Every structure is written in structure tokens, then in C-alpha cells.
What does this fold into?
Amino acid sequence: MANAEHEDAVEEAEEKETLQPRIEVGGEIKTFEEVTPKKALKVLRETIADYEDYQSVPSRRKTDEAFRKYVKETLTQANDHIKEIHAALIEAQQMSTWAIADQVINELGAFIKDVNKSDYGFTTFFENPRLLEMDISQLYIIDYDFIKSIRVLNERISAFMEIVQQHYFEDTDLWFETLNRILGRLISLNDDRVKLIGSYERISY
It folds into this structure.
């Protein structure tokens, strides 16, 4: 019954608001397909093991942990691939890219630690029985945008790896700048997510 009510509330919220996540990649603005909270939740459940919802108190912390575990694992793998690219560029004596490569690797590593740490401050989000439906819907959209941005990051890393393996070293600095822009997008999304969850320190129940 509670689950059905949640689905109805999500449908109502999506009538009021839709969002087209946008991200700049290599000077090009990539726009994901228009997404509603209901569709975002469906994709998240299909993509992330143990991702349930933020509606019920028992599932809320489990869903947050599942999301952060997914982000940690996928971004750790992505960073390992960037390190492989960096090693190949070192071997090829492409010195002009070493500094920005180190920067991207270190910033991504620090970001993974931040996500894993999950410092939401003093919040009642995980215990509050009456969260605002608008906030729950927005959180689904943020999580959706997060995994789509990770997918774009992985696509760019794969393409970058391919050209490096072919010993094509033109514009490698621009490739790293592209990865850095996507990382900036992920950092911004995580900031929004932490602020939303942390905002429940001021809501009594």
C-alpha cells in the first residue's frame, strides 16, 4: 500500500517538473533525454543493485548505501583506466599532459573518498517519516543524472584509451580537460545531493 502511494506521489511530482540534465563535453553540450522522477527511479533500480527508494525509512539508508557503493566502484574502475592512459603517455614521453593527468587522477581519487565518506552532517533524513515528496523526487533525478554523467565519463575514457593505444597523441591535453569537466559536473551533483539530504536537520517531525 505504501509503495503504491509512493508511485502515485512520484507521478504527481513529475507532472509538475521534468529535467533535462546537460553536460559540456569537449565544447559540446550533451543533453540527456527528458526524465521524470518515475522514470529516473526505474532506471536507477535497473542499474544499481539494492537500490529501492527513499520513501520508506527502512529502505532509505539501504538505497543511499547502494548508490554510494555503485559510484565508488564505477569511479574507482574509471580512475584505474585513466592511470593506464597516463602510464602509456609517460612511456611515449608525452610530457605536456603529465601535470593535468596527475590533477585529474588525484581529484577523482579525492572525490571517490568524499562520496564514500557521506558526510551529511546532523540530519534527520534517514529517520524522518515524513519527507517532502518534492525532495524525494529531486533526489531520484540527481541520482539519475549522476549515473548518466558517469556513463559519459566512461565513454570518453574508452575513446581516449583507444586513440592512445593507436599512438595518436594529438590533443591529449584536451581529452584530459574534457574528463576534468565531467568530474566537475559530478562534484556539483554530489554537492546538491549532500545539501538536500543534510537540509533535514532543520525539519522537525
In short: The chain is about 70% helix and 5% strand.
